[in-house]
Structure formats: structure tokens, C-alpha cells
Amino acid sequence: MHHPTDRTTKLAVVGAGAVGTTLAYAALARGTARTVALLDVNREKVDAEVLDLQHGQMFVPQAQIVGSDDVAVCEGADVVVVTAGAKQRPGQTRLDLAESTVNLTRKIMPALVGVAPDAIFLMVTNPVDVVTYAAQKYSGLPHERVFGSGTVLDTSRLRAAIAAQAGVAVGNVHAYIAGEHGDSEIALWSSASIGGVPLLEWKGLSGRPALDAELRSQIAADVVQSAYRIIGGKGATNYAIGLAATRIIEAVLKDEHRVLPVSSHLEDYYGIGDVCLSVPALVDRRGATETIEVPLSDEELRDLRASAERVRATQRRFGL
Ligand SMILES: NC(=O)C1=CN([C@@H]2O[C@H](COP(=O)(O)OP(=O)(O)OC[C@H]3O[C@@H](n4cnc5c(N)ncnc54)[C@H](O)[C@@H]3O)[C@@H](O)[C@H]2O)C=CC1
Ligand SMILES: CC(=O)C(=O)O
């Protein structure tokens, strides 16, 4: 007999550290999934985090919160988000984490696929592009079902900075960061717009500057540096990535067909292939299903190719 409660949505979060717990908190506050499961090797920590989150249940949409150090807690998940593993210490780049996190990915993906064979996998652990490529390989799943949060976070940083300079709401800014989630990422100025006006033609509201080349390059540099500044000040970035990942998860669970710059497997994006990298892509219930060929200036394309090569070089170092 069919019970209406037989099928509800389940989100599994692997890694109950700064990112995983903030993401779980954001997802609970927004009612993203009916069940939120946390998995961490540190049993004491995961139990404590679950208890703390459960004590907020009265104030959020109805949800069940569970946690364990046993992978079975992720059983039947619709979306599995991976945030487990090493994070940057001040001065380290994301690529410096690859040795440790690629090994971890090799270890955990088969077990996660074993308990959640139908899930969409969202990788967050850094270096996210390399980790996503590894996760696709070690899971054996179709590429569209395994993708990375990529430059969704960086894009949000970029839009916030543009909005602050232009004096408009962040929702009125359209602009993407593409490429590596890291030092070689690229701001796609040529396709950016503010309130329907191409950004490169934006004249500035009264008393506000136009976004000239100098200001644009300052904004782009600030976006690249922002994670280092936050890590220097508090040891981790967690709030914005928690919200960014939650937005991506909702695009999947609600089959939104949302365009997001996630890190997906590129086959032939302006000739770029055999790499996971962020470009605007369609995200729906099947995962990251196709990329969108945004018009690029010659310089943007050159920089995107260089970014792809840099990520590929790291992949090769780890035999991927
Ligand atoms: N893609 C992005 O935009 C962002 C990525 N990150 C990355 O996310 C990752 C996590 O960062 P934080 O949460 O700050 O680190 P954290 O150190 O606070 O948490 C990591 C957690 O993973 C757990 N863990 C380790 N091995 C595990 C395993 N085999 N199974 C389950 N859990 C395991 C640890 O016990 C720890 O609780 C890092 O690689 C960081 O660089 C962080 C922010 C943004
Ligand atoms: C840590 C990291 O990847 C970020 O905040 O961008």
C-alpha cells in the first residue's frame, strides 16, 4: 500500500566540520530536505553537532536530523555532499591539499555509492575541481551525477563586490567567475550585466564610479584573495559556502534547471576537455546535465584554457 510518507527527500553531509555543519544548518533553516544526515569519522563531534542542530528543530521547517561515524547513515540519500578532509592552513593554496583529499576521495566514494546508489554527489572538499574529477573516476557514476560546487561561491563573492560598487541589489547583477575554484579563476566581464545593461557599458549611478578596467581588476583580485583573508582571520570559510551549497542542492532536489557555475566534466567546451572545471551549467534533478557556451573574449578564453591546464597538471600528478 502506498503511504504518502514513503518517499521524502534526504540530504547526506559527509564531514561535520566547519563547512558541513554550517551547510546542514543552512539546509535546515531553509527546509531543503526532510532528513539531514551527518557522517564524520569523529563520532563525538558528529553526535554533538547533531544534538545541537536537533535542539533548533522547533524553529525550522519539520526535518529529521541524524548522524554517525557509520556510512550507513547516508543510506538512500538523494544528494550526498562531500566536505570531508583537509583544509588550507594560512598560506596554503587549495591545490596543496590534493594529495590528502584525492586519497580520501578514493577511499570514501565507493562506500558512499554503495549506500546511496541513486544519489547526486556534490563535492565541496578542495581542491574541488581535482577532487570532483577523482570522485567521478572512483565512483564509476555517469559524469552528470558527480559535480563540484566550483565557482558558485566565487561568483557570489564577485556579484556582492560589483553590487556594492554599483550601488544596486546583488540580485540585479549577472556575472560569473569561471575556471578553477582557486588562484587561476577568471571573472567573465564580457558577458556580465547590471540591471540589464552590459557591465562594460555601465556608466555608474549618480555619485558612483563606472566599473573601469582598474576597478574591475581590483574586484577580481579581491575575489581571489577573499578566502585567504577569511582563513587568516578565523581559520575557515563556512557561511557563504554553506549557503552556496544549499542553493545547489535545492536546484537538484527541486529540479530547478538553474544555471550555476558548478565544476562539471568538460568534454569540448571551446575545445577544453578531460577536466572538471566551472563554467555556467544547467543543474536539475539529474545533476549537472549540460554546460552553456557563454560568449568569451579572447583574453577570457586564453585564461580559461590556462586554468584548465593548471588543474589538469595537478590531476596528472596524482595519476588521474
Ligand atoms: N569548494 C569550496 O568552495 C570550499 C571548500 N572548502 C573545503 O571543504 C573542506 C572542509 O573544510 P572545513 O569544514 O573547514 O574542514 P574541517 O576540518 O572543519 O572539517 C572536516 C571534517 O571532515 C572530517 N573527516 C575527515 N575524514 C573523514 C572521512 N573519511 N569521512 C568523514 N568525515 C571525515 C573531519 O573529522 C572533520 O570533522 C576543505 O577541503 C576545505 O578546503 C571550504 C570552503 C569552501
Ligand atoms: C576555502 C575556499 O575554498 C573558499 O572559501 O573559497
Automatic annotation (TrEMBL):
NAD(+) binds at V19, D40, K45, G85, A86, V124, T125, N126, S149. Allosterically activated by fructose 1,6-bisphosphate (FBP). PANTHER family: L-2-HYDROXYCARBOXYLATE DEHYDROGENASE (NAD(P)(+)), L-LACTATE DEHYDROGENASE. It comes from Myceligenerans indicum. Beta-D-fructose 1,6-bisphosphate binds at R159, H174. This is L-lactate dehydrogenase. It is found in: Cytoplasm. The active site is at H181. Pathway: Fermentation; pyruvate fermentation to lactate; (S)-lactate from pyruvate: step 1/1. InterPro entries: L-lactate/malate_DH (IPR001557), L-lactate_DH (IPR011304), L-lactate_DH_AS (IPR018177), Lactate/malate_DH_C (IPR022383), Lactate/malate_DH_N (IPR001236), Lactate_DH/Glyco_Ohase_4_C (IPR015955), NAD(P)-bd_dom_sf (IPR036291). Keywords: Allosteric enzyme, Cytoplasm, NAD, Oxidoreductase, Phosphoprotein. Residues 151-312 form the Lactate/malate dehydrogenase C-terminal domain. GO terms for molecular function: L-lactate dehydrogenase (NAD+) activity. Substrate binds at Q88, R94, N126, P127, V128, D129, D154, T155, S156, R157, T237. Catalyzes the conversion of lactate to pyruvate. It catalyses: (S)-lactate + NAD(+) = pyruvate + NADH + H(+). The modification Phosphotyrosine is found at Y228. Its EC number is 1.1.1.27. Belongs to the LDH/MDH superfamily. LDH family. Homotetramer. NCBIfam families: L-LDH-NAD. Residues 9-148 form the Lactate/malate dehydrogenase N-terminal domain. The keyword NAD applies.
